[in-house]
Amino acid sequence: MATTANQAHIDGILSQWREIIGEDYQGYRNHVVRMASCCLMLHPCTPEEQQKIEIAACFHDIGLWTENTMDYLPPSVPPAVAYLEEQKLNHWANEIIRMILDHHKLTPVKSSDSPLVELFRKGDLVDFSLGTVTFGLPRASICQLKAGLPNAGFHRMLLKRSLRWVVKHPLRPLPMMKW
After folding, report:
1. How far is residue 89's CA from residue 13's CA, in Å, rounded to a whole number?
2. Contact 138, 145 (CB under 8 A)
3. I need a surface site. Which of 5, 9, 62, 122 has the fewest CB within 10 A?
């Protein structure tokens, strides 16, 4: 069982999005690898589960760039589904869609048929919180992961985009967050 994400697999998926993501590519790529690795450190996964996590991780925030919006969860789904169809993995679609749509849920995911949905939420929160939230992961492991995969401006980019969004949409300040 792996405890770090397969970077070659992630790079293979993300490479087609490099131009769209633009200057944020390295930061997003490193976030994807870190958060997928956090999932794998939180819970041992089978190779199939790891592959699902890595696919969902690649697409989980892609709507930030494809639709240029902070309300990016729904727009992140179609590119993931298209990828699954191309790879003949359509049977994974419902689970990966849930992983994407629920990854910013503030409370635990209890209603899903897949434990990967909650695991994915936790892995993203560990990285998004810069290791403030650990779900029991050793801080040394998180620090080592962050040292090997630098932030590269990812969180700064999120903050800037969020501030621009709030100015334009004060009544919907964080549309990607769910209870």
Report:
1. 14
2. no
3. 9
Tokens standing for residue 13: 């998926």
Token match 């993995």: residue?
89
Mind listing the pLDDT tens digit for each residue in 6-63? 999 999 999 999 999 999 999 999 999 999 999 999 999 999 999 999 999 999 999 9
Average pLDDT over residues 92-119: 94
The torsion angles phi and psi of 46, rounded to 5 degrees, stand at: -70, 165
